[in-house]
């Protein structure tokens, strides 16, 4: 039997945005966190580089704001940039209070508390990090707090299907969101989660592309659900390609952090020529979009499959201690990065667009908030500055939580006849191949036709194919019982 759950807050997604928001609002009511797989299976968990914030003695809010605006190619919202950058220090203090451990500056002569890394587009060292596994450390600390909190219930292996509006629940407004339908993978039933406030914290959509640094959960679920419910999405064309994804047939989505270039790593052709100075005065530390396009140009020119990233000039012990995760992963695949350059290619990494939100993280549907990669606040413009995403997630989770709590007493549960999922005459599909075939087709033409460099003709081709596939997927969706794969395919 499908279950009906009632909570004050429904949080969809368990990365930094969802967990941080949940911990804040749990002080005011009961919270459900639903997450597609394991709670720790998030993009946050893979973030290597760190979180940008102005804490170093030599740094300033003005410089961080300017770097963000420059990286965003003139399309950032300047008020949002200042709003976020000014809250950097407070966000770091909040994470420290949750038990997150950032690397300290061990030098007794230093005036700084932390060891700051540098990444592309930053004019200063300002990235707080936990060696090269910052996201994993943040996820560990926040999840431990959430699991201990008596007001938070965690639903793993629960895949959100659709948002529910007040109109579904028999009330007047279709603009008010009152919860979501969620597929419980263990029972294969679609349960209803009723909530006064719903937060989308579902991350990005990297799985739209054949090659991505994203985890398998990144199928654009929050954006798709919000769009179907009538919310506005913006800037969806601004897909960020990370310049340096590990190139290896058995490891397609492993990120080689920009922090490697921040520590002096140099991009070279397979012949050994350092090429970035030709493209930008900041050379290897140019903003990410410029580096990704430069690599794309070099690969097209040479016909090679990859370029290399060389950090061998550093002392081996420094490399092993600063980049233990990258060192270990590459070693397992036959590359000792202290002695050999790393083969790399660009891959889809981050979507700068998403559900349009204001400075409080509100979408344009009542009681629906969106925070993190799923949202578009205007901070990133056309291209996100490295390590600004974790910062944005904490700042807006904090703002959204304060607004949600302030609004809670006025929000009521939807109605006594809360809707149940109608399965109709759907049957179990015996043709799962349709899902894999469609998924592969989409990811391949997105990579080839909607990739790093685009043309109108290739975009037209992609659109024509998508229209056909959309119809096929919709038919499939209405006729067969839901599975997590089918939900993701429809969202993609
Ligand atoms: C990286 O470590 O290169 C990724 C950081 C980010 O995406 O901001």
Beta-strand fraction estimate: 15-25%
Distance between the termini: 29 Å
- What best-fitting shape do the alpha-carbon axes yield? globular
Radius of gyration: 22 Å
Give the biggest beta sheet. Answer: 7 strands, mixed
Q: What percentage of residues falls in helices of 4 or more residues? A: 25-40%
Bound molecules: succinic acid
Tally the beta strands: 17
* Average predicted confidence as pLDDT: 95
What's the tally of helices? 15
What does this structure look like?
This protein is α/β, with parallel strands linked by helices. The protein has helices spanning 16-25, 43-46, 61-71, 78-86, 88-97, 134-148, 221-229, 259-262, 288-302, 316-322, 324-332, 389-407, 433-449, 456-479, 484-491; strands at residues 4-12, 31-34, 51-52, 116-117, 127-128, 152-155, 158-165, 177-184, 189-200, 233-234, 239-246, 266-268, 307-310, 342-351, 354-356, 368-370, 375-376. The strands form four sheets. Strands 1, 2, 6, 7, 8, 9 and 16 form a seven-stranded mixed β-sheet that branches. Strands 11-14-13-12 form a four-stranded antiparallel β-sheet, covered by helices on one side. A three-stranded antiparallel β-sheet has the order 3-5-4. The model has no long low-confidence stretch (mean pLDDT 95). Residues 47-49, 255, 257-259, 386-387, 389 line the site of succinic acid.
């Amino acid at each position: 039997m499908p279950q009906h759950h009632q909570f004050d807050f429904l949080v969809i997604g368990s990365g930094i945005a969802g967990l941080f928001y949940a911990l804040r609002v749990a002080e005011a009511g009961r919270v459900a966190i639903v997450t597609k797989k394991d709670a720790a299976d998030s993009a946050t968990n893979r973030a290597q580089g760190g979180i940008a914030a102005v804490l170093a003695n030599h740094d300033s809010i003005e410089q961080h704001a300017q770097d963000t605006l420059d990286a965003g190619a003139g399309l950032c919202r300047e008020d949002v940039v200042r709003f976020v950058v000014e809250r950097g220090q407070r966000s770091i203090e909040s994470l420290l209070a949750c038990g997150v451990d950032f690397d300290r500056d061990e030098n007794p002569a230093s005036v700084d508390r932390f060891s700051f890394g540098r990444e592309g587009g930053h004019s200063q060292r300002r990235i707080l990090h936990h060696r090269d596994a910052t996201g994993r450390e943040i996820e560990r600390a926040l999840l431990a707090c959430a699991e201990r909190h008596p007001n938070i219930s965690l639903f793993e292996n629960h895949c959100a299907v659709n948002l529910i509006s007040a109109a579904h629940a028999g009330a007047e407004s279709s603009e008010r969101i009152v919860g979501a339908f969620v597929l419980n993978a263990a029972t294969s039933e679609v349960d209803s989660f009723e909530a006064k406030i719903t937060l989308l914290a579902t991350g990005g959509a990297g799985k739209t592309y054949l090659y991505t640094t994203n985890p398998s959960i990144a199928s654009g679920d929050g954006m798709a659900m919000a769009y179907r419910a009538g919310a506005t999405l913006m800037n969806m064309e601004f897909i960020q390609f990370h310049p340096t994804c590990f190139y290896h047939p058995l490891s397609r989505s492993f990120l080689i952090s920009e922090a490697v270039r921040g520590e002096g790593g140099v991009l070279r052709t397979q012949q050994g020529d350092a090429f970035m100075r030709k493209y930008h005065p900041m050379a290897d530390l140019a903003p990410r979009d410029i580096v990704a396009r430069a690599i794309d140009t070099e690969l097209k020119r040479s016909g090679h499959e990859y370029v290399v990233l060389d950090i061998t000039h550093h002392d081996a012990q420094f490399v092993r201690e600063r980049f233990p995760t990258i060192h270990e992963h590459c070693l397992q695949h036959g590359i000792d990065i202290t002695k050999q350059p790393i083969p790399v290619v660009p891959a889809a990494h981050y979507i700068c667009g998403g559900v349009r939100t204001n400075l409080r993280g509100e979408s344009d549907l009542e009681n629906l908030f969106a925070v993190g990669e799923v949202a578009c606040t205007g901070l990133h413009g056309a291209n996100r500055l490295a390590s600004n995403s974790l910062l944005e997630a904490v700042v807006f989770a904090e703002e959204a939580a304060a607004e949600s709590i302030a609004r809670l007493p006025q929000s009521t549960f939807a109605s006594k006849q809360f809707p149940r999922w109608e399965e109709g005459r759907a049957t179990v599909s015996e043709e799962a191949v349709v899902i894999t075939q469609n998924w592969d087709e989409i990811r391949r033409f997105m990579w080839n036709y909607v990739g790093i460099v685009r043309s109108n003709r290739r975009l037209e081709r992609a659109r024509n194919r998508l229209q056909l596939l959309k119809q096929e997927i919709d038919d499939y969706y209405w006729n067969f019982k839901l599975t997590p794969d089918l939900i993701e395919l429809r969202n993609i």
